[in-house]
Amino acid sequence: MLRIAVPNKGVLNESAQMILKEAGYRQRKDSKELVVVDPDNSCELFFLRPRDIAVYVGEGTLDAGITGRDMLYDSGAPAEEILPLGFGGSTFRFAARPGDFSSVHDLAGHRIATSYAGLLEKHLAEVGVDARVIKLDGAVETAIRLGVADAIADVVETGTTLRNVGLEVFGEPIMRSEAVLIKRAGAPQNNGLEQLIRRLQGVLVARDYVMMDYDIRAEHIDKAIALTPGMEGPTVSPLHREGWVAVRAMVPRRGHQQVMDQLWELGARAILVTDIYACRL
Ligand SMILES: Nc1ncnc2c1ncn2[C@@H]1O[C@H](COP(=O)(O)OP(=O)(O)OP(=O)(O)O)[C@@H](O)[C@H]1O
Ligand SMILES: O=P(O)(O)OC[C@H]1O[C@H](OP(=O)(O)OP(=O)(O)O)[C@H](O)[C@@H]1O
Ligand SMILES: [Mg+2]
Question: Start and end of every Histidine biosynthesis HisG C-terminal domain (predicted)?
Answer without folding.
Answer: 206-276
